């Protein structure tokens, strides 16, 4: 990592100091903000938190508050119905477009992961896998009804069919140890099913989530469909799970110590809950390969609707 | 209602509107006038046609069914189950304790590890087919027992509950050796021991909905029936013996709710299924939080039955009546909110009152009875309290004039009009024969009002326009939508709720998913 000029050239990003007409050029740093309703606000609380970077130094990350969460739920609720109403094919194409744009930002994603301590090769592998994962999900929306639903051959004169529909507004506690591939693997499932999301990003490694937000903002994903909040999980989780306008919780990344409280909060209003399967650890490799390509990530937040109609003249 | 508003072809008669005092919700206090459409001098009066109870031998006392054997409860205590139509005690029922639950779970765990999980799926299927056959063979016995214990009309237990229960076992039997087709791309695995708690409104049917998919998927079961309706579950224990189901695969523990909690919270129980009220469902979900158990909840409902102006009105009236008075309205998916388009409201309500006046309320064992007994005294009181709130909050009440038996727990079918969406009778699940009417003008307004509830179990749509059915069906936040029909059930058709009506599905391929861990 010592050869900064070479790396800069490769990544094509103005991250380092170069000479400029005799004086050293000062890096223009990125302010890592929240992503709510398609915009990048700072936390209304005015707080930020320092995250230590592997290459040295710190990054100031917005520290989202309970109010930021409430705002995210508000805009997510508004975005939910139009997003669910898009055709399955269009939702698939929009997810594919996200993958396209992630490819274009692959270098920054790699840099984020390296900043959080990943080796160069691990970072490259995780970014590639995350892009491929998004493509995997992009193919799902227009197949779900055929794979999960169908017609029911009832023993009476009725035509009866069952179709999956999105649950609605889903809050996701993103995986901690797999900050990009894990995030994309959980978020992709929520979006492919036609839901909207509020994501609490990895606390120790939030930069890939910030970059993903910046990618989504220029994609075709409508404002409010994905909202990403960087925050201290232990602070926000108790409030998040009690928010009655959240229909489901993806607790994959919920720390074990907070799981009971999180599930009890979700139970208050019969919210759907998905959690890390028994025996699976929140580890960097938890979403590698076929382990990450699981339809469960989609089905956790689908409602099956059965419609009956008589047959007759 | 003057007789000139009667539907074409219906016999003219007077159906007086009565005002009901807020403080007298008990129907026994209401004396039906002689002008009732069903009084003895009416052409509509039927001679009694009681089903014989001879086929049933109810024992004085029942134990718990643990590890294939009947056992006395460890605490030695019993409760009484009553016939709600006569208030007569039927039998003493074991009051299972947490210690009994522990023994049942131990038996289920052992049966899972040593027998059931080692059985070839094909053989598992054959056990379920056997159970289905025995239920068919003993259908009359089950129907009569069910009606005596629950108060539901024999017509319903005979034609709906028992045949559907047998059909569920039949349907899921065939899945037992085809599970990989239910979870494409994944490997199906059983959970192990499943804990199930079921309600009193469809005692045998709910047992079948729970046990059939659980066993087909390869799990073993500890089931707690409702404390007021344990008899058909205990009769089912006898079916398990007849089918020579291995000991411990099905265990039935009667007892109070606390015993149910000790079943579902036990760490050896890997998956929990509950049907009942939303408040108990929430308590269960909180009780097992963080334990990593699978959970499905089938909870309350407040279904909208939406009648558009172009609907076939007489057909819609039948559907609305079936929607709310089937099983005395003690149905989680009951169509308890009538949403009727303003342009036809007056005529529709006239026809509805007319039809309600034709309902036969009384002896559940009578084959002509439409509306039987309310399941318990507590439920009677709960219905009465909510009806009183409807009157107090300003809704207009109407009840048909009809004779009610002097003994037993019977509630007069009740229609509310001028109901505001904020009224308790429009928001809370009454679980009784009480219909709250709300009007609407446009399709959008109907959808908005139908979805204006914390629940989302079912809904009905009545219109002759196919495209409108599909549009409204897709806009309704409800797990089951009946178009031009209501309260239809089938083992192949998934059933379950949106929102606070719960999660997970019962019936169909989707009903298997909750009983499988897929890896």
Chain-wise SSE layout:
The complex is a heterodimer of chains A (313) and B (519).
Chain A: H1 4-11, E1 19-20, E2 23-24, E3 48-52, E4 58-62, H2 66-85, H3 88-104, H4 106-115, H5 120-138, H6 144-148, E5 150-151, E6 158-166, E7 169-173, H7 181-192, E8 196-200, H8 207-217, E9 226-229, H9 233-240, E10 248-250, H10 256-268, E11 272-274, H11 296-299, E12 302-310
Parallel strand pairs in A: 7-8, 7-10, 8-9, 10-11
Antiparallel strand pairs in A: 1-2, 3-4, 5-6, 6-12
Helix pairs in contact in A: 3-5, 4-5, 4-8, 5-7, 9-10
Chain B: E1 61-62, E2 64-66, E3 69-71, E4 78-83, E5 88-94, H1 98-114, H2 121-137, H3 139-150, H4 154-175, E6 188-190, E7 193-197, H5 203-216, E8 220-224, H6 231-242, E9 250-252, H7 257-264, E10 269-275, H8 278-287, E11 294-298, E12 304-307, H9 313-325, E13 337-341, H10 342-357, H11 377-392, E14 396-398, E15 414-417, H12 424-427, E16 434-440, H13 443-450, E17 458-462, H14 466-475, E18 480-483, E19 502-503, H15 508-513, E20 516-518
Parallel strand pairs in B: 1-5, 7-8, 7-10, 8-9, 10-11, 12-13, 12-17, 13-16, 15-16, 17-18
Antiparallel strand pairs in B: 2-3, 4-5, 6-20, 11-19, 14-15
Helix pairs in contact in B: 1-7, 2-4, 3-4, 4-5, 9-10
Compact overview of the structure:
The complex is a heterodimer of chains A (313) and B (519). Helices cover 41% and strands 17% of the residues of chain A.
Q: What is the CATH class name of the largest domain in chain B?
A: Alpha Beta
CATH class of the largest domain in chain A: Alpha Beta
Query: How large, in whole angstroms, is the Cα Rg of chain B?
Result: 23 Å
Spatial arrangement of strands, main beta sheet of chain B: 14-15-16-13-12-17-18
Q: Major sheet of chain B: size, sense and barrel closure?
A: 7 strands, mixed
What is the CATH topology classification name of the largest domain in chain A?
A: Aldehyde Dehydrogenase, Chain A, domain 1
Separate helix tally of chain A = 11
Could you say how many structural domains of chain A there are in total? 2
Q: Structurally, how many domains make up the residues of chain B?
A: 2
